[in-house]
# Entry
Amino acid sequence: MPTIPENNRLSATSVDILNAIRNSASANYRNYVPIANKSQDSIREIGAIIMDYPDLQNEFLSALVNRIGRVMLTSKMYDNPWSIFKKGLLEFGETIEEIFVNIAEPFTYDVEESENKVFARNIPDVRSAFHVLNYQKFYKATIQNEQLRQAFLSWTGITELIAKIVDSMYAGANYDEFLTMKYLLARHILNGELHAVTIPTVQESNMKSIISNIKGVSNNLEFMSPKYNLAGVSTYSLKEDQYFIVDSNFDATMDVEVLASAFNMDKADFIGHRVLIDSFSNLDNDRLDQLFSSESWYVTLTEEELSALSAIPAVLVDRNWFMIFDNLYNFTEQYNGQGLYWNYWYHTWKTFSVSPFSNAVVFVPGTPTITSVTVSPESVTVSSGQTVLLSADVVTENFASKAVDWSISPEIDGVSISPLGLLNIPPSVNNVTLTVTATSVVDETKSDSVTVTVGTGTTISSVTVSPSTATLAPGESVQLTATVTGSDYAPNTVTWSLSPTTTGVEISETGLLTVADTVSEDVTITVTATSTADNTKTGTATITVDVA
# Structure
């Protein structure tokens, strides 16, 4: 289970810190460094001793950072204004499996039917989501020799030195964590993955109507429903588990006491469930690009998207909607003898994700609508026993859900399609034409279809390699081509192999055979192309390597 670090604050004095380090130091350190007392002269004396011996400097700074600075930094990370949504430190493993068991189906009592179905199975609807480590960053700070020397010249010098080491890295790590959480929320809103509820445009004159709408949604979340979560499972969120993420301008306009009553809480309790955001559109694109430009999943927010996000006044989420874990904290240091400075690195690994089983609602001053649904590819030809992935591009306004319901016509036993559009054709189904339709869950009048032609099973009749013979000298190459003959639905791919295997002679996946300059003996090689659909069907070519 993840754990949340204690919220530590540095209350110790410089004398306390010096003595704490000495108490846990090596015998050599204790022999040279005396016990500190509450006088400036004592601190200066200890500083002079430490600065005269590099080994003592290293041990002092290592203890200062790893015993005190690291604890402070880890604790400070939970000062993030959205820290309520963090699950804590996951010390073991990089993947979290979230399991949800949907409610059981009801059955009608029938004594006669029970005789035939008493041993029939009814498998529970168990669903899972995996949250994977996806954030690995580090931060760096440098302390010069002179900065260490200055730390022993004042009563607060040691604590100020800790602040110099910790604060810059803390500020960067804390800001990036908060920014990533905001981006995560923004991207899910833009993808239509929060349930959108229409409210009037925010004005002081209609705040009563807006709060009434919010109260209605909050009340509804307490009842079992599949309506408000991405997975469409039946679940609920009690008032104490609901958190209201609110734009700071909207927060300034609304009456907190009135809104607190909407959540059946007094003002003090509600404040703990109100999470402020400067703006849903206030995202630092330059910093996000710096953090994630190398990640394949990252997409920079456009000006149009930011403008749309700016109109959102509030979001209501279950406390378990955010799935954010700390996977690793690591603090290391290295002294540079040439430059006379210490470098410190703070590594932080995290998991940023959301739960598809938890409720989340976005309030928008406009009606969520579906503009169009387009299924791709437009037509598909497959053979029996194969699968094909279809996708539905849904164009929306005002953050409407982009989810679709898939249907197949005609309905045939064994033919199925997953919620993500993976169409499965069993081996028993062939020579049939299917119509697969994606229909918007928001607007059933918006849909699109694709024709899927299912042929007979895969049949390979022959594989031919050309050229069938070739003579090469060291340093030369030849492109071989495999022609696969079979049914219209059979894959025409092959795997290549060489016999005998010869050092310096290689063939690529595309059939390019290369003889290295280092080959020094004549050799005759048989090249074989084997069908990936039927490994009993092969074709060969003979390659002669002539070094003369």
Notes: The chain is about 25% helix and 35% strand. The domain at 460-545 is CATH 2.60.40.10 (Immunoglobulin-like).
